[in-house]
Amino acid sequence: MSAEGAGQGPGPEPGSEPGPICPEHGQALNWFCCSERRLVCAACTGLGGRCRGHRIRRAEKRAEELRNKIVDQCERLQLQSATITKYVADVLPGKNQRAVQKEQEIFERTEEAEGILDPKESEKLNFNEKCTRSPLLTQLWATAILGSLSGTEDVRMDERTVSPFLQLSDDRRTLTFNAKKSKACADGPERFDHWPNALADTSFQAGLHAWTVNVQNSCAYKVGVALGQLPRKGSGSDSRLGCNAFSWVFSRYGQDFRFSHDGQHEPLALLRCPAQLGVLLDLQAQELLFYEPASGTVLHIHHASFPGPLFPVFAVADQTISIVH
Q: What is the rounded CA–CA span in Å between residue 222 and residue 260?
């Protein structure tokens, strides 16, 4: 185990206030495992613990870092807010007063998020689960989380699952669509035999994970996650991504974008076609988020109780998509 600090191993802080408890060991979650990106207790990092040998640091230090990232983002938002105010005042005198009022509300909410004002004055910044979800807070959370990631997962395709309508590159990161079914592709129980799908060779059941897919060359693709029991055979909806209870995907067909799960399709209004698509899977929070890496724009966020380990999943019916490494 690698613990940051003055050479001391994990242990409870003297006089520390009670907080979340480890469900496995019944001890306080005073530590953050950088490898699994989750809170752990001292026993988790000790002999026989699942995080032994991982890079560990104090939870309060990790929390302080994330708060600092949020504060930085708030400052950038305030700077943008000031720029908008100046533009409206100089270019549109006497007009768009409603826009000015909205801009002032955004400015005040960023201050509340930073802790300058009292959050209880705004329902949209109250962390009560019954309150409306705030797009601003979602953006701040996503920016902080994405900025804290040191890199992305080394995701590669499981060649045993690749559809015979797809060609897999030697490094197992690129899928190319072929209209004609390959006869050289040996069939097997893991392989998709009809839809142009492929599963990754690794699954995630805990922690925070992110990967990026280059989609700029394709006008028809699906990217997301799926359970290992996703059916592989036949032309029915059981094995079609997004049309069953086993898969959650972001898809593009021409100029139409949508999020699909269990046959329910939610249209997404995007201003432009992303060249790259980022996927963020937070299994502790039970959230799946799609974003544009270039701008950090959140394209869609989905909350679900995932029933098991999840595999990155892909489909392409036009040209090529590639996992970015």
A: 9
- Cβ atoms within 10 Å, residue 71: 17
Crossing angle of helices 135-148/59-91, nearest 10°?
A: 130
Residue 147 CB partners (closer than 8 Å, separation 6+): 69
Residue 173 has what DSSP assignment? -
Helix (H) or strand (E) holding 104: helix 97-114
The helix/strand/coil state of 46 is coil
SS3 204: strand
Tell me the C-alpha distance between 260 and 71, whole Å: 34
Which of 146, 161, 155 minimizes the C-alpha distance to 173?
A: 155
Strand 55-58 to 2-3 pairing = parallel
Alpha-carbon distance of 236 to 244, in angstroms, equals: 10
The distance from CA 198 to its chain's CA centroid, rounded to whole angstroms, is 20
The span from the CA of 283 to the CA of 82, in Å, is 37
**Angstrom distance (rounded) from CA 35 to CA 33:** 5
Nearest-angstrom CA–CA distance, 275 and 54: 35
> Would you say 238 and 227 are in contact if contact means Cβ atoms under 8 Å apart?
no
Looking at residue 123, what DSSP letter applies?
G
Angstrom distances, CA of residue 97 to CA of 1, 41, 43, 100, 116: 58, 53, 58, 5, 25
15: which 2 tokens?
């006089």
Secondary structure element (H or E) that encloses residue 52, with its range: none
Write down the pLDDT at residue 37: 80
Q: Model confidence over 288-302: pLDDT tens digits?
A: 999 888 877 889 999
Predicted confidence (pLDDT) per residue in 164-195, tens digit: 999 999 999 999 999 888 887 888 999 999 99
H-helix or E-strand spanning residue 257: strand 256-261
Return d(Cα 136, Cα 132) in angstroms, integer. Answer: 11
The order of strands in the sheet holding 197-199 is: 197-199, 310-316, 220-227, 247-253, 256-261, 264-268
